[in-house]
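User: Round two. Same drill as before: sequence, then structure, for each protein.

Assistant: Same drill it is. First protein:
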Amino acid sequence: MNSIRLDKRDLILSKGSAVMTRRGYHGTGVLEIVQAAGIPKGSFYHYFASKEDFALQALAFIYRPRLQRYAQALSDPSLSPRARILGYYRELLAHFARQDTPQYHCFIGSLSFEMSEMLPAIGAEVAAIQQASVDILRGCLEQAQAAGELPADEDCGNLATFVSDAWQGVLARLKVRHSLQPLEAFVTRLERLLQA
């Protein structure tokens, strides 16, 4: 019974977050979420107290696995720390290059722009996810520094924040321009940044 409950909750989170990513928080009602999931409207309130609760749970549902994959990629012992970072972002570039028209719809970006100030709980969750990503990258940068791949006086925390913020900017430009150019420029600049 518990697995059925989790499966249905996950289905609602998956389908509903896709709708909310495209239409925004305000443009998405509970009806659109349940229609996307193919469930009765009453089922929504069995799993979520409100639309805000849904958005908070969807952030965790989407970004916990992504953060785990990021942490795994940046801790691969078969590669040097610098190679891990560059390999991760080169793979993302390759992923977008395989698309007919490069595009990106970012759930966290949509929510942060639209709702962070209006609903502080969403703002706090977005900030926590972003900080977790920065912390993962900072740890790998510190390993790169210890291995002599970065200057000894590099501020790894500041560099991690800069790279993370720059990546969010790249994703915003990708959403607007549907061009690989911002991603290619980001990877080229990252290669230069990560030099001893």
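Second protein:
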Amino acid sequence: MSALPSHLELVQGVVLPKPVGAHPVLDFVNTRSEWTTRGAARTEWLTSYEAFLIWSSYVGLVPPATVFRLIERAGSSPTEVGRRLRTTLDFRSELYDVLTGQATDHTFAAAARLIEKASARRHLVRSADGPVWELPEDPELPLHKLALLAGELLTGSSREHVRTCPSCGWLFLDARGRRRWCSMATCGNRAKVRAHAARAR
């Protein structure tokens, strides 16, 4: 097998993009390519619900042991697994539109419904460090964790630091106001190469 590009990593047999967004929600929307075209993605990394579960462990959203149990449970109904994947990808598109200021009333309402549903499923439980919010351990756990983080991002101060890569459309946090590209190793480097070629001409 040939070496993967520098922005990709093989995780439990699944090729995934390395996190560059500095926030799990932004890395979630960056799991497809070519947002700038607004059409079909040239590359889709969440090709199955299992891939999404593996990704959620890769970015630290859900512990690996929990993901293993969820993968075992998720395979019971192909129709249900397909529905969960569709819901996940729809939420990703809705979030991208909300975060980039392109959301219609419909897409905003759809994203809000999922965030509100996740919030309603939380339970306050005791822990060694004091009371904490927990979600049920079921196949919707990773998506609902993302939804809660999305709600915090959209309503918090970090929202104004979300930037869009001018090359690929990926999102990232830029709290210091110094980042232009999602990654200097990919989009930044390609821009430098194009600029050098233009000067040479």
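Strands lie at 8-11, 14-17, 123-125, 132-134, 162-164, 171-173.

User: Perfect.
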